[in-house]
Structure prediction request, 324 residues.
Amino acid sequence: MRPDASRVAWRGKLIAVTVEQWDGREREIVEHPGAVAIVAVDRDGRIAFIRQLREATRLRLLELPAGTREPGEGPLETAKRELHEECGFTGGEWTRLGGFWTTPGFTREYMDVFLAEGVDAGAAAPEPDEELELVLVHRDEIRLADLEDTKSIAGLALYFGR
Amino acid sequence: MRPDASRVAWRGKLIAVTVEQWDGREREIVEHPGAVAIVAVDRDGRIAFIRQLREATRLRLLELPAGTREPGEGPLETAKRELHEECGFTGGEWTRLGGFWTTPGFTREYMDVFLAEGVDAGAAAPEPDEELELVLVHRDEIRLADLEDTKSIAGLALYFGR
Prediction:
């Protein structure tokens, strides 16, 4: 299953846009290296969220920790690195909860979701351009309908539905 | 909350990319008119899914009916139009289940999710470049972890969690 023709229409630092021809249909596709999200639960049953400015939305959103895969990095490695950088958490028992295409109408981004249980707190090490606030919410107090982004709702639905 | 500078870096037919400067941080943002997804339930408790080729993924995915807002169209109008075009369904009792930012790290796409209960079957009217297969699955037989894209998992989580 391949396009008849494909050309890179724009290339940025994080994303690029490819325009493909499929049997007369044109498709604009955002290239993306793939991503991960993490449901991290501490020993008291609290789940880690990150509050941060999402420039695209003009809002500070509360989301599951997540991040983009670096070249050569497997999803579990990305997940452990991001959880440490964003939340300062290390250790824990790791399980893959599942994965999903984030917006298959216009990107190739695939996101793997991991569960990390019994993580140990520590100092976060965010990248210089990230202003992150760690928020811990007990799993009994989470209402999916109050969350603001798709991966946080879907990732937690996989966790609660195990 | 506004960027210091903003320029359109690329403009396609469906999407465009804006590059914004925020206090020294550069952000690549995919512009998008917004979208809707629909949890449509017939009188037998079956939920409508669409199977279609998603060129970006090179796969035929099974997803909730969904679509992009046309200029001047409110989310509920889009939802009713898309459910008719993709599935042939009309009528039903409509409720908003919620909404979410689909991938706030790099797009402005916001998706509203509607519930349509007791819809009436009819002839679908897909756009000429869409090859769509309607699949009805009873709500008791749906396992969220088997679904392949984020909005279908999140949208159904909102439905099951009402």
Q: What stands out?
A: Chain A touches chain B through 62 residues (CB under 8 Å).
